[in-house]
Amino acid sequence: MHVRNRANRLRDWERRAELPLLIASLLFLACYAVLVLNHSRDPLLGDVALSVLLAVWALFACDYAVRLMLSGQGARFVTKHWLDTVVLLLPLLRPVRIVSTYVTLQRRRDQPRLSLYGRVMSYAGVTAVLLSFACALAVYQQERGAPGASIRTFGDSVWWACSAITTVGYGDVTPVTPLGRLFAVFLMVCGLALLGAVTGSFSSWLIQVFGREDRTTTADQDPSGGRGESAERPPEG
């Protein structure tokens, strides 16, 4: 009974906190973008963005601590919810938690607004955009001013992120710093996963559509309605 109450309290907390945390994630990304793109042009704006960014991260840490206590799992919570642990350490990766956010918010509705295939494609598209933007900011922060760097502007970084996540890799601009290359590997791996999810979902949707059309065509061509000729044959004699 005590374990069930813990699970209910944890589920209730996650349902209430997920939407505010999603908004806080977007605010975190916006503040990080200000810090990177401002680049010491306006010290006051940079200080405000840094303060808000740290406050949002503290909010993430409080949410993690509350869920850790409500779960009652102790150290097992860290390994069981490894994605949450990684996201806490690297808040720029919070877009990968869109699935859990969607599932939590969907519990408030009776029926999903989109079909299964639509949900997969929407998740993959939104995640790709947010991850590309976050990695473009991180790589630009590492690469600007680095010796021999080919990514010198944020536009170069966005172009690189688009080619990396789509696994095209033109090679005209590439990271040269260790952290920049680490972000590149991460983005390429995510691009392969997202591309595979979209391709598989689209292929499955096409098979379903064509299969439905084949069944409809077969039913239209069969005047007996699938009951066979024996059911319509008049008695002899």
Protein architecture, described:
The protein is flat, with a radius of gyration of 25 Å. Helix content is 73%, strand content 0%. The chain has helices spanning 2-38, 43-71, 76-80, 82-89, 98-106, 116-143, 154-165, 178-221. With 237 residues, the chain is mostly helical.
Number of strands: 0
Largest sheet: none
**Global outline:** flat
Enumerate how many helices there are, as a single number. 8
- Cα radius of gyration in angstroms: 25 Å
Relative helix content? over 70%
In terms of quaternary structure, what is this?
A: single chain
Sequence of secondary-structure elements: HHHHHHHH
Instruction: Briefly note the structural class of the backbone.
Output: mainly alpha
The averaged pLDDT comes out at 80
What is the CA-CA span between the terminal residues? Answer: 75 Å
Can you tell me the residue ranges where pLDDT is under 50 for at least 5 consecutive residues?
none
Beta strand % = under 5%
